[in-house]
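Notes from the 1:1 (GR / supervisor)

We went over the backlog. Supervisor wanted to see one worked example end to end before approving the batch request, so GR pasted a single chain during the call. The sequence is below; no edits were made to it. Supervisor asked that the structure be written out right there so they could see what the output format looks like.
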Amino acid sequence: MAAIPQLIVGLGNPGSKYERTRHNIGFDALDFLARRWQIPMSENRRFHGSFGTGRVRSSPDPLYFLKPATYMNRSGQAIRAVVDWYKLPPESVFVIYDEMDLPVGRLRMRLSGSAGGHNGMKSAIAHLGTQEFPRLRLGIGKPETAADRETISHVLGKFSPAERPVMDEVLQLVGEAVELALEDGVEKAMSLYNNRSVS
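Structure output shown during the call:
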């Protein structure tokens, strides 16, 4: 059985000071997908975030979109609320988030795996009770030094003027990759997009 996402989650932090930062690329990706497929998003208290639902292409089932407003380290709470309400299996949850271990311009899709130090993913795994759900990591690169302060300002900083057009192209790839995952399964999308790079 191909893994077909039903709930697409973009991870980020709410509030204007975090907008367009590297750590919020999951939010940017979800906004991009919602615009691409004309899925209206609105605040939803029950789901602790911005939520939308609609149909994409020829999908027989509705697709759910979520941007948790709980702050990154409590993202799982919002994901769990949607999963419980719609009785979705964890493996149908598809999470998009930032990844320091990938350079800017790269994306990597996986069917499962650990949080790799990402607080949003730690929370998602804890609340879903499993790490067996697909995810899409978008490269944000690493700061030049590994000092904690440097890492925090890198992650919470905005993309440079040179990086911004690269990330706009990455979002186009995200649209194509997620569309393929919805039609033919995550494995097929992985095989075609995991080695793609925007330079």
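Supervisor's comment: The chain has a mean pLDDT of 93.
Batch request approved.
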